[in-house]
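Consider the tokenized backbone below.
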């Protein structure tokens, strides 16, 4: 492992030099609707340095990262089919989604996490969020019925079931299944949307890839599904709206005109303080007005048919003046963090929100990709991350599958740079095998990673640029529901 680490260190230095040249040569390859930035400003590698790094058994990391805990997947999730996915947080607990259910970790001592409970309830994807005593779990693989004892079936099965499951987690040691709702094309991801009155929450359900052969997923599928959850009666959870976001099939048409046809959204992040939502919708990035959460209105749309293959997710900065969109080139299963692919594909696209002629627009500023080449046996691409609640500046932590975890500064939208990282060697050094960090989020002083195959990792970031974040404490955290945090007292300010 040390040999692989040192080899990778040498390759990183060479990669940075090559990447700077590639980026400089590709400065004109920006979205057509963006204003071209100054070539130097548009180059995310122009001032990148190789960070001081340390080796720690099976991991390597920058010197400002400390690996404090690792807990491998436990039975019945200790198999390659049980893929770790998204994470939600409440109080002293982390809720780790999995393709076969979810795991509740007690993180009251982040350096000694313990399993509080495990729920076996297969359904694929396992996108997860929590609110109060409720947990929501996405099901995106067709099942024979809605129960946890169901079996897999095909999307061609007219009786197949996909959608959202609701669990009561008032007793985290014994979650109870209390409700479910079927949705068209299932639920690849979902986003929790608060209501001003506090009596209900809404779930924006994102799904895609319809087919005339799929009875429950018919084209055109240019919509999202909205579910209402009465907090005092979750059993009454119901589908209440299916707003069309791309009327008249106006999403990205795909080849030969565009790069990826839009047939739904992959993920949505809401920013309640400004009644905004950013949607990553396959071939399109969109901005929505959600003042009326049941009737979201698309107010801006951007495309990048040069470098973006699949608009995957979005993150706002704390002032709601920037959005970081991710591109999941290769669907998360390919080795795209290498010299061949380069620094602007499978990356983040950073956009500023600007007011022009009374309208809010998204203006492209730069790309950010981890400045280290990975092995060709490692799937690596931009994936799930969250804002770090610092007092000054815009900092984000992000999972990159087997590219590990990256922390980067995008205070200057046109010049993002990595300030910390944590990475493991390849899951299989001889062939490409899917794994790595699916989600990496900052919560109450620590970064938590849900490894697809290796389970829970907890790391601590110790850096003067971000240490102010340790004063901000959340009681509940779903990364796709972004509340504004305030200073100097570090209290979370609800969005509405």
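A designed sequence for it:
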């Amino acid at each position: 492992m040390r040999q692989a680490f040192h080899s990778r260190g040498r390759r990183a230095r060479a990669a940075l030099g090559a990447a700077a040249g590639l980026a400089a040569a590709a400065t004109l390859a920006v979205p057509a609707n963006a204003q071209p930035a100054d070539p130097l400003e548009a180059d995310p590698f122009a001032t990148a340095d190789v960070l001081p790094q340390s080796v720690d058994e099976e991991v390597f990391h920058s010197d400002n990262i400390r690996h404090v805990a690792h807990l491998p997947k436990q039975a019945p999730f200790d198999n390659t089919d049980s893929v770790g996915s998204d994470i939600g947080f409440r109080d002293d607990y982390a809720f780790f989604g999995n393709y076969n259910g979810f795991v509740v970790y007690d993180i009251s001592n982040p350096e000694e996490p313990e399993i509080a409970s495990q729920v076996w309830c297969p359904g694929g994807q396992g996108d997860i969020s929590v609110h109060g005593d409720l947990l929501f779990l996405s099901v995106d693989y067709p099942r024979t019925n809605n129960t946890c004892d169901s079996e897999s079936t095909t999307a061609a099965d007219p009786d197949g079931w996909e959608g959202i499951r609701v669990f009561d987690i008032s007793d985290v040691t014994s979650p109870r299944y209390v409700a479910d709702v079927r949705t068209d094309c299932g639920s690849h991801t979902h986003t929790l949307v608060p209501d001003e009155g506090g009596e209900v929450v809404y779930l924006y359900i994102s799904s895609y890839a319809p087919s005339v052969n799929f009875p429950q997923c018919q084209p055109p599928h240019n919509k999202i599904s909205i579910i209402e959850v009465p907090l005092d009666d979750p059993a009454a959870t119901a589908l209440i709206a299916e707003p069309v976001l791309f009327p008249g099939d106006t999403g990205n048409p795909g080849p030969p005109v565009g790069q990826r046809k839009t047939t739904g959204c992959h993920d949505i992040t809401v920013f309640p303080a400004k009644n905004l939502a950013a949607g990553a919708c396959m071939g399109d990035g969109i901005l929505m007005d959600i003042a009326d959460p049941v009737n979201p209105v698309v107010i801006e749309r951007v495309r990048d048919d040069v470098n973006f293959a699949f608009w995957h997710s979005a993150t706002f900065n704390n002032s709601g003046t920037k959005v970081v969109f991710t591109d999941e080139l290769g669907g998360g299963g390919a080795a795209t963090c290498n010299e061949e692919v380069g620094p602007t594909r499978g990356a983040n696209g950073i956009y500023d929100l600007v007011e022009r002629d009374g309208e809010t627009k998204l203006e492209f500023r730069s790309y950010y990709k981890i400045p280290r080449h990975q092995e060709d046996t490692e799937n690596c691409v931009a994936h799930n991350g969250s804002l770090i609640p610092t007092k000054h500046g815009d900092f984000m932590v992000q999972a990159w599958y087997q590219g590990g975890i990256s922390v980067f500064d995008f205070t200057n939208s046109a010049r993002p740079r990595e300030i910390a990282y944590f990475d493991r060697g390849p899951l299989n050094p001889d062939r490409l095998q899917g794994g790595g960090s699916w989600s990496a989020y900052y919560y109450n002083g620590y970064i938590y990673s849900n490894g697809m195959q290796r389970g829970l990792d907890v790391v601590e970031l110790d850096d003067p640029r971000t240490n102010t974040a340790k004063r901000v404490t959340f009681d509940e955290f779903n990364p796709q529901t972004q509340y504004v945090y305030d200073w100097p007292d570090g209290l979370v300010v609800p969005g509405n």
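Residues 1-49 have pLDDT under 50 and may be disordered.
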